[in-house]
Here is the input.
Amino acid sequence: MTDSVPLRPPVLVRHFDTIVDAGLAAGTVVLFVAVALGTGVASPWQPWPGVIPVALGLGGLLFLRRRRPMTVLLLSIAVLAFYHAGEWSPAGWIWPLSVAYVTAAATPHVRWVAGIGVAQLAYSAVDAWWIVERNLERYLIHTVGEAALLALLITGGIACAATRRWRARQPERP
Here is the structure.
């Protein structure tokens, strides 16, 4: 009788998490650059720190999101704040960090995530206050839209965590 050699899972299965992270990172980079260019940034390299380096930074951080979700969220916020400090940008404060927010909200630190998000929204509202005199409707869409998106992202993270817990309690099927 021959010993059976355990079959290794296919490559896509073994590296599924890395493939997902790469896809999320690439999507973040492409979407951030596309929105920045679509909203009037003349050159993706200017103004400093530039759209492309910021997009690459946000995307690169996503490769660490599974091991350090809160660290990734905080560093992503810092990168985005640094970008917005250079010059006001119509790029949002919450949507570029969508993956980081969902991942962090799926941890036991969801209250911290909500608090961090509210603080970021408050800063965003103050940062965009100059819009009120020019276009109150645009300001309200900005602030209310970002708040609604934050609530949706945190809800999504909580739902992911609940699904994971539910699956862990299910008996394995043969």
Q: What stands out?
A: The mean pLDDT is 87. Helices lie at 11-14, 16-38, 51-61, 69-86, 98-105, 110-127, 131-134, 136-169. Residues 136-169 form the longest helix (34 residues).
